[in-house]
Amino acid sequence: MNEKIFIRQTHDPRRQKQVIFLSCFVASLFFLLLTRLWYLQVVKTQDFQSKSESNRLRLVPVAASRGTIFDRNGTVLVSNRPSFSVAVIPQEVKDRDALLDQLSAYLGIDRTELLEKWEKGKGRARYYPIVLASGITRDQLELLEEKRLWLPGLDVEVKPVRQYEVGVLASHLLGYIGEISDDELKSEGYAGYNSGDYVGKSGIERSWERLLHGKNGGRQIEVDARGRILRTISENSPVVGSSLVLTIDAELQKRTEQSFGEQAGAAVAIDVNTGEILAFSSNPDFDPALFAGRMPPDKWKEYLEDKRHPLENKALKGQYPPGSTFKIITALAGLEEGLINERTTVVCRGSYTLGGSKFGCWQRKGHGAVNLKRALKESCDVYFYQLGEKLGIDKIAAYSRALALGAPMGVGLDNEKGGLIPTSEWKEKRHKKKWLQGDTLPASIGQGYVLMTPIQLASMIASVATDGVVYRPHLIKRIIDQDGRVIQEFKPEILARSGIGTRSFRLVKEGLSAVVNEGGGTGGMARLYEVHVAGKTGTSQVVKLRDRKGGIPYQYRDHALFVGFAPYDKPEVAVAVVIEHGEHGGSAAAPIAGRILRAYFEGKGTIRRPVRQGAAADTGGESEQEPAATEQSGGEPQGQEEQ
Length: 643
Hints:
Beta-lactamase, five-stranded antiparallel β-sheet, 24 strands, elongated, disordered C terminus
């Protein structure tokens, strides 16, 4: 009985089902575990191997040194110096907030700024360093090294930054560098760049960025748990950027900038036979070194509040009414069209009436009977009003464009302005109004809608010196590698041939010679006794003022201009000077042009530079034989339209 009961219990069907169920469950569990193990060890081998490597390996980027910038004589203008940057490896940072608090205290940088840099680096591999601060001092570096064990993920990088060997000289031309922005990182033009890289922001540094930047390298290193380097696994050396030899003469550039003093404006000196720009000045200047680090707030405020606009590249982007310097174009057009010759005479009584409007000459008493030479020499507005009326704006524009005016000249810098040479068609499109004869008269003397940049002014007078051959103004002489081997040489490029006859140029140049060298000429203060200079003064209105008596606020004063070339018989150099709100071309711009020309010929040895005592030797001023002002060297307060 008992045995039968035992047998029935051991063969209980429910018991057997439970055993089978448990066996299947265990078998399924082991199957899932084996499948997961196979997936992790076989399918995901590469992924986990990479993660494992990143836990003990660091990729340290090595920034390439930017190319050096030289002047035409080999003087170093911009080189490099080492700078220390603070970076962190995100995957090694356990407490981001604590780390940022510590770095903010050690570096004296606002925590918000550090956090913004951190957020900027999101989306990249967590083992890639994020640069949080650049240009730290050696004292700060030593402090961080002392605290390194308590700053997990900290990495101090050495990066080359710009050393401006000539200080603020040619700051607008050379430009400055700064840390790459988010927008730049996302753009195609900066493919291959990394967060924290320095890139050109303006001037040569920006326009020739890809060439100057070189190619970054990197090192793969093994570190321990505390971030200490154990060994270098692999290394890819950076490629140094190519160097540039500019057309600029550093000494002439220095003398040009010194000649401005505290005045605002621009000057360009150009080799008339090649188009090489010898001096490129925009005043006031700024300190480009400040932009590579943290700009002092007080300095930034000073730059922004300065009414002379020191951050504006006036030589490249300044667009000014050319004033009476534009009479050169009007005269050439009149000669070529047969409307005037050297004997054509106009009587100036101080104004010219067209319809119901009266257009005044700067000489309110009038110049009397004037021919072309005297009209240029004394800058008679009435002569050119009448000539402009006969020509019409479209013919004036055509001759302007024959000298490549009215468009950017392609000097090799970004954002060059093209000025404006108006036409009747332009006004209809731009202002939805017809061109009137009353618009032509101001345009014929470089007022109204006409605008030119200092580079265009220099090119215009250089083209006159070469009888109509227009060379493209350019700033780069050659590109060289780090060993000094020439990669590319830039040759003179003819931008246009005006087609204007040599006789027309000869007659205009005779008038320009009289402007500087004869009694009554408005440009006598540009005269050099040792070299024959020819040129033209100009004064252009900023705003129309009926009452010019008393003190005129600075921002409403007329601009002063001068363009000239020398030597007269065999031209070598041309110069254009614009003094913002300088009022009179003859008294403000012409003397500066004379100093620039003197500096050029002293550099060549044509003129002996006087030996001076003390600080005066560095002023870059004129020699003791500075010419006295001629009868009307004060220039011409430009003609106004009076109703």
